UniProtKB/TrEMBL annotation:
Highest taxon of source: Bacteria
Pfam family, one: ZapD
Lineage, opening ranks: Bacteria, Pseudomonadati, Pseudomonadota, Gammaproteobacteria, Thiotrichales
InterPro entries: ZapD (IPR009777), ZapD_C (IPR027462), ZapD_sf (IPR036268)
Organism in which the protein naturally occurs: Thiothrix lacustris
Record protein name field: Cell division protein ZapD
Amino acid sequence: LEGRKPYQMMRVELPVSLDCFPEISAGKQRFTLRFVNADMMADRGKQIKKDIQFTLVLCNF
């Protein structure tokens, strides 16, 4: 990420066929993404350990 650009929004696009959702952690200079199973029966989803193809869009206004 460029430190000079104040990104205000992040969009993560996933294929509809995947049964997961992104969990995003962000700080001032970086962010992390991990993908978690969308199991509604579990208290907490489990991290997916395989590669996931996704599209990331960073926006500023």
